[in-house]
Amino acid sequence: MTAVTCFLTGGGRFQPAGGPAGRTVGLGLALWFVFGAWTGLACGQVGGVLRTGQLLTRGGESLAGRLEKLTEEGLTWQGEAARNFPLADVVRWEFEGRRARLSRESPLVILANGDLLAADVVRADEEELALRWDRLTGLREFAIPLEAVRAVVFRQPTEGELLRDLWRRVEQAVPGADELVLQNGDTLRGELKGVSDRELRLEGENAPGTLGRRGVLAVIFNPELQDLPRLEGAGGLITLTDGSRLHVGGLRLIDGELLGCEALCATPFEFPCAAVVSVQFLGQGCQPLSELEPVESEFTPFLAEDWPWRRDRNCLGQPFQLRGNCHATGLGVHSRQRLTYDLPGRAEAFVATVGIDDSARGRGAVEFAVLVDDQPVWSSGVVRGRDEPRPVPRVSLKGARRLTLLVDFGPEANVLDHADWCDAVLIGAPR
To answer: Structure pTM?
Structure first.
C-alpha cells in the first residue's frame, strides 16, 4: 500500500489513516494537491500569493505587487514591472490580507530590547532558554541566550488589572535578582537555575528551591544581567501572524517560500512567508521615532491623573493593538500629550498610523495633529475607539528642524483616551 503524506501551508503534515476510507481520502487529497499545484504553475502563482502585498518606498511610492527576490543588499518587487530597490530605499512591506493577532491565551517571551515572541519555554538552564512557537506550526524548537531575555510569561492574566500590573512589573523590574510572579500575586526573588515542563528551580536566601510551574505566572529576569546588542547596519523588524515581532539582520528570501534572518541574539530563523505580516526595514533608510528622546514633553491632565508616554507600548504599558491588529513600534500616550523632537539632519519625511488602542474597549475620543516647526500640517479630526486606524499621510520634513506630535482631548473629556502613534517612522534619518 502506498502512503500519502499531505504537507500543509503552515509547514505541518499528516498521513490519512489506513483502510479503504483512508486510502480514498488520501488519494483524493493527493489529486487535489497535484491539481492545485498544476493550476498554480499554469497561472504562474505558486507561492506568489504568499508574497503579494504593498511596498512603501523611501520616495513615498506605495506599490502593489509581489516580492520576487530579497538579499541583504536589496529586493526585487514585481508590480506592473519588475523593479529593484536597495534596502536603504525601502520603508516597509505588508503582505496582503494578514493581521498580527496576539492571543491572550498565548505564553510570551519578552526580550531585553522589547521584542516579543509568542513562544513557550520547553526547558531552561543558567545559559539559555529552549523555546517552541505556541501558534506557528511546523517550526522547529529554538534556543536563545538567557541574557537576551527580560521576562517570560507562562500565562497571561485574564483580569485587566492583573494584566496591567504584570506589564508594570516587567517594565519596572527591580535589579539584584530574578523575580517569580505567582498566580496569587505574590513574588519570590532569587536566582533562577532551571525550568522544566513541570517545575522551576529558584535559589536564594528566601527562595523555596523547587516549585511547581503551574503556580508561576511569570519570570522577570535581573535587569543587571540583560545584554542584547542593537541592530547595526541594514536589517528589519518582522511582525508575524501570532503577534510576535523581532529585530533581525541577514534578511533573505529562500526558495521563494521562506524568509530567512538572524535575530540580534544570533539565533537563526526561517519563517514561512505565510506566517509573516510585515517587515519594517531599518538602517540608513528609516528610523522608528521611539528610538529618539523628545526635547519637550508636555502633558496636560483633564483633572489630576498623570499619564506618562511610552515607547513601543500603549499608555498602559501593553503591546499596541488597533482593531485586533498588533503593531510593533510607536508611541503610546493619553490626552492631552504634546511631544516635540529635534530632527536629524537627513530626515526627509514622517509616516505613522494612528488610532485608539483596543484596551479602551471601543471608548475614547481624541484628535491627533502633526506640527512641523510649530506649524500645523495635518489633523485627524475626532478619532473614536470604534473607528478604523488612520494613516498619517507622508509629512515632508525637508529643511525642517522640529517635529511635534499632539494628541488633544475629544468630545468625551479624557475618558479612556488610549491614543497610539503606531509605526511612527522618520524616513531618511540615519541610525
So the answer is: 0.85
Please give the pLDDT value at position 1.
35
* Domain containing residue 390: CATH number: 2.60.120.1060
Q: Which residues of the chain have pLDDT under 70?
A: 1-47, 284, 429-431
Asked whether residue 170 falls in the same domain as residue 271, the answer is no
CB contact at 8 A, 277 and 239? yes
- CA distance linking residue 7 with residue 26, whole number of Å: 12
φ, ψ for residue 161 (rounded to 5)? -70, -40
pLDDT of residue 401: 96
Radius of gyration (C-alpha) of the chain in whole angstroms: 23
Q: Give CA separation, 417 vs 175, 355, 388, in Å.
A: 32, 10, 15
**The predicted structure's pLDDT at residue 429:** 55
The verdict on 200 and 245 lying in the same domain is no
294 and 368 part of one domain: yes
Residues 228 and 146 sit within 8 Å (Cβ to Cβ) = no
* Residue-number span of the structural domain to which 23 is assigned: 6-43
The owner of cell 488519494 is 27
Query: Based on the domain organization, do 37 and 127 belong to the same domain?
Result: no
Grid cell for residue 7 = 504537507
